[in-house]
Amino acid sequence: MLLKYTIRVYNRLMETLDINTGIRKENKNYNALDLVKFILAFFVVAIHIDPFSPEVYEEAEFLNYYSQQLVCRLAVPFYFAVSGFLVFAKIDIKNPDSAYIKKYCFKILRLLGTWFFLLYAGGKYQLWYMGAVVLAVVLIYMMLKIRLNLIVITIVSVVCYSIGVLGDSYQHVLAALRESHVWVEKIAHAYEVLYMDNTRNGVLFGLLFVVIGVILAKKKIKIPLPVSIAGAFVSFLLMTRELVILRNVYELEYCRSLIFMPVCIFFLLQIFINLDLKGRLYKSIRVWGNLIFYMHLIVCHFIKLFADKYELVDVKNHLYLYTIIYTTAIAIVIELISRKRRWLRYLYS
Question: Tens-digit pLDDT profile for the chain (349 aa)?
Fold first, then answer.
């Protein structure tokens, strides 16, 4: 009786908070995703620009490592998962619409080309994500067209991600396999010739996260909010433990992918797709987040030039803070002007 009463109270509370923990409503908004992506844009900035200066913080090396290699590394996988969710939510996976996929991919590639041209002075590194998400979406579409179900597609993506993890955070395991198996050495060498030693691409990294978005878009997965929060928290703790071991035992310098990262992303996306936020501001927030993602490195470049020229020590010591302030301000200005100058919308849509 107590359990039934607790469940009843919980469901009433969810209705009051406009949180849907069951099947999504057709008129449901996903403003929460725009808000989270906006916040995560600052995480992306922190990956590229140390948020803690050694001149200001005694523990800067420790703080930068775990903020950049653990917390902030959730940003891009979440972007992939959101893209998979939003794109395939509008598609019948039993008969996928090629026209919609082409339209989406063309939009992303147009944005990629636009920003690749505009970022002539540098700051193009983050654009790898755009090509990677297009590749992942196209691969999923192709697998759906040959009648592979989501279970098989998920298995394929898990295998690809596992290979990517070996080439990234678990290179010590890959090194042992290369020494003991000639065929592994040949395959790894061939991959290095083509892509160097980077496994962060649409196949070995992004594919699994996009598939997670597809699963949550097409399957009626009903997980209570407290369970999703607990799942995200526990998986993040496991990620933390995993990274601590990798750093302390194997002296890992950087970490782009972890074993428990997909689990954490699954629960995080589950939380935010079931959260309704009302208001008109979220449309602007979506634009700001996109522009911050595109512009932050070039803005940082010019801030550094200005600080070096005029010997602004405080600016150098707080480069991350100044970058996010000016990048956000420029993004807001562009979005406001684009309301009347529609051609500016090509920078973000």
Answer: 444 444 443 344 334 333 333 334 455 789 999 999 999 999 999 999 999 999 999 999 999 999 999 999 999 999 999 999 999 998 999 988 899 999 999 999 999 999 999 998 778 889 999 999 999 999 999 999 999 999 999 999 999 999 999 989 998 999 898 998 898 888 888 887 776 667 889 999 999 999 999 999 998 888 999 999 999 999 999 999 999 999 999 988 888 899 999 999 999 999 999 998 998 899 999 999 999 999 999 999 999 999 999 999 999 999 999 999 999 999 999 999 999 999 999 999 9
Phi, psi of 306 (to 5 degrees): -65, -45
What ranges make up the beta strands (E) of 255-309? none
Angle ∠(28,34,39) on CA atoms, nearest 5? 145
- As a residue count, the chain comes to 349
What does pTM read for this prediction?
0.89
Q: Show Cβ contacts of residue 191 under 8 Å, excluding neighbours closer than 6 positions.
A: 167
User: How large is the greatest C-alpha to C-alpha distance in the chain, in angstroms?
Assistant: 72
DSSP state of 196: T
Amino acid, res. 333: V
CA separation, residue 10 to residues 117, 172, 274 (Å)? 52, 47, 15
